[in-house]
Every structure is written in C-alpha cells, then in structure tokens.
C-alpha cells in the first residue's frame, strides 16, 4: 500500500460511452492545475500495431491528451490485440490475467504521481479471467481500494443503465462518488431530465456534463480531488 496517494477508478455503463475520453479530460484538468495526476489501466484489448509494436490505444490517447510523460505501455498491465472482452483476448493469446501483477503494476505506476486515475475495461460487469481463479473488474476495484466514478451517455436509455451500474457497484461494497454524463446537450429536454432523474434515483451527484467534442472539463479541480480517496 502506497501512503499519501489519492485516486479514483473510472468505470462506465457500457462499452463506447466515452470512458477513455472523459478520463483524459479529468487528468488533463488536474495536470493543468499543477496536480501530478497519473493514469493506469489493468487490461486493454483491441490494441493496434505500429512498426511491429503493439500500441495500447486508450493509454496512448490519455497520455497524449493529458501530457503524462510516461510511455503508454508503462501505464497498462495487459495489452491484447484482439478487439474482444479482456478475458477472451487473454485466452486467445494464452496470457491469463493475474490480480497480483495488476496490484504490483498499479503501485509501481503510482510512485510517479500524486493522484492516480485508473480506468476500467468496458462496463463494470467486465470479466478479466473466467474459470478457475475468476477475476472480475469489481475484484480489481476492490483490491485497489478505490472509489468509483461512473461515465454514462446522456442519451435515451441512460437512466436504466446508470441506475443499474450504480446499484451493482454498491452491491459489491464499492463506493460510487459521482457520475459524469457524456455527449450532453443542455438544450435537449431529455438530457436535462435524464440528469435530474439519475440523481433522484441514485442519490449520487452528477459532477459534470460533457458536451460533444469538449476539450476541457467544466468542473473544479477541488471537486475532482474531493472525489479521490486515499490509496
């Protein structure tokens, strides 16, 4: 356990809701405010090859957007090429995920930073290893002892998926500190109502709403830091 560190785990209501995009904005905001914030991802599938090298695209995007000085490969424990769920990618490449390596790598990365922003894979119910020694994403969150920030899409259907995600996390004894709505349009009546109903049904604050192609997060650095528990 690394003392005097803060962090949060960014998860989502599903795949392709903008979790990586929002994570990059969070770290960019912190680093531009002179907070030495870092990034970590346990497992990444769908990596691409460049000059024969496997590149973890999500980590590359976050590092480039936020100005993290480490290489993307140093920020991810398991990098897989097949664009499938991490547990299946691990089976296909015969490189099973180990929780101990995740813990070790996370704490090693944390030595470079004062605040750690960890990003999950897909939604919160994401298997990393099935069969013997099953590892779910929730096991990683629990092991890292981090609270959760949920990224959700502002569109139709988000009330159901966000409420279920929050309820599942809480059922697993994971603290949910806040929700960020992505692709939000303040002129859209449904988006505004979705925000109101999600807060009413979950009793969890929506800490920010991110519009399409936004390059800066409209939330204070203090608010972001208050979301982070001591690691």
Q: Would you give an account of this structure?
A:
The protein is an alpha/beta fold. It has a single domain (about 5-230), classed as P-loop containing nucleotide triphosphate hydrolases (Rossmann fold, 3-Layer(aba) Sandwich). It is about 40% helix and about 25% strand. It has 8 helices and 12 strands. The chain has helices at about 20-30, 55-65, 85-95, 100-110, 135-145, 160-170, 190-200, 220-225; strands at about 5-10, 35-45, 50, 55, 75-80, 115-120, 125-130, 135, 150-155, 175-180, 205-210, 230. Strands 1, 2, 5, 6, 9, 10, 11 and 12 form an 8-stranded mixed beta sheet that branches. A two-stranded antiparallel ribbon has the order 3-4. Strands 7-8 form a two-stranded antiparallel sheet. Helix 6 links the parallel strand 9 and strand 10 (about 175-180). About 45% of the residues are buried.
State the helicity in percent bands.
Answer: 25-40%
Low confidence ranges: none
- Which band does the percent of strand residues land in? 15-25%
User: CATH homologous superfamily?
Assistant: P-loop containing nucleotide triphosphate hydrolases
Amino-to-carboxy terminus distance:
7 Å
Major pleated sheet: 8 strands, mixed
Give me the number of helical elements. 8
Write the layout of secondary structure elements.
Elements: E1 6-12, H1 19-32, E2 37-44, E3 48-50, E4 53-55, H2 57-66, E5 76-79, H3 86-93, H4 99-110, E6 115-119, E7 127-129, E8 135-136, H5 137-144, E9 148-153, H6 158-171, E10 176-182, H7 189-202, E11 206-210, H8 221-227, E12 229-230
Parallel strand pairs: 1-6, 1-9, 2-5, 2-6, 9-10, 10-11
Antiparallel strand pairs: 1-12, 3-4, 7-8
């Amino acid at each position: 356990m690394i003392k005097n560190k803060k962090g949060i785990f960014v998860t989502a209501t599903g795949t392709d809701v903008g979790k990586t995009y929002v994570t990059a904005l969070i770290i960019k905001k912190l680093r531009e405010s002179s907070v030495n914030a870092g990034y970590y991802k346990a497992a990444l599938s769908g990596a691409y090859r460049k000059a024969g090298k496997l590149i973890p695209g999500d980590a590359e995007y976050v590092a480039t957007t936020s100005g993290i000085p480490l290489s993307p490969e140093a920020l991810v424990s398991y990098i897989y090429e097949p664009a499938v769920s991490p547990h299946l990618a691990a089976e296909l490449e015969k490189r099973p995920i180990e929780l101990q390596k995740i813990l070790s790598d996370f704490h090693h990365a944390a030595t470079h930073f004062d605040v750690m922003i960890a990003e999950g894979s897909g939604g919160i119910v994401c298997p990393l290893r099935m069969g013997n020694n099953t590892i779910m994403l929730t096991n990683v969150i629990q092991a890292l002892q981090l609270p959760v920030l949920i990224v959700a899409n502002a569109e139709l259907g988000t009330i159901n998926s966000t409420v279920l995600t929050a309820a599942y996390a809480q059922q697993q004894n994971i603290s949910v500190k806040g929700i960020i709505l992505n692709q939000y349009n303040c002129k859209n009546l449904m988006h505004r109502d979705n925000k109101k109903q999600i807060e009413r049904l979950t009793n969890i604050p929506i800490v920010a709403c991110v519009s399409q192609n936004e390059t800066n997060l409209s939330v204070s650095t203090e608010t972001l830091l208050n979301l982070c528990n001591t690691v």
